[in-house]
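subagent[fold] <- orchestrator: predict structure for attached chain, return tokens only, no commentary.
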Amino acid sequence: MSSSAESTAARAGIVAHLRAVAVAIALVVTSLLLGIVLTLAVFVPLVALGIPLAESPSVVLLAALIPSQLAFATVGILATVTLLDGVPVRVPTRHDLQWVGLGLLGSFGAVSLLVVASTFVDLSPLQSVVGDAAEANPGLLVALALLSIVVIAPAEELLFRGAVQGRLRATFGPVGAIGLASALFASLHVFNFVGGGVLVLVPLATLFLVGAVLGTVYERTDNLVAPIAVHALYNATLFLSTLVTG
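subagent[fold] -> orchestrator:
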């Protein structure tokens, strides 16, 4: 191959990589924007009815959470249909269930790293939006555990593993796709924390590792149900354990 042809091929490869990243980011941004629109569609009538939202942080959280997850699912479905011709979904096999178990171990292993980090770094200035709302209404944690199973895990996995990782895989391969999709997945959760400045990087690093575990489970099983199950059980366990220990 001539140097001119090699140069042209290299440029084409760079363009393809940039296009894949741009599409992945666009999917996430579109989901966020649609989530804002749907959330406003919920909040505007509530405000118009004079409902005191400021006195009910748990209601506010749920009223914002459900529309945003609906947005993730909507964009995820549209993207997988138009860009990927669907995603693999089937009843889990024994092999899939083994990877679900490994995924749970890996996810909680990432959390243990956060616990270890907290012994070296003072994370007290960092506040969790969910944690603050749960202090006022512990029952919120039960609702979030249930929503994790039926709404949050399916919606987020459909978007980040099914659509985003699936689109990136075609250009970057499985490893690159897992890394980039996990970075986008973690960055989305920055809205879950307030205060603390750069301290937010500690839980975001944990979420990146959790995302990488979920992405690996998806690649190893080729079944979106597997990372959904890991995500749902992981979230539900964290919420319910917080309720019990809190």
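orchestrator: received. Logging for downstream: Helices lie at 3-48, 57-83, 94-120, 129-136, 139-188, 201-221, 225-245. Residues 142 and 202 are 26 Å apart (CA to CA).
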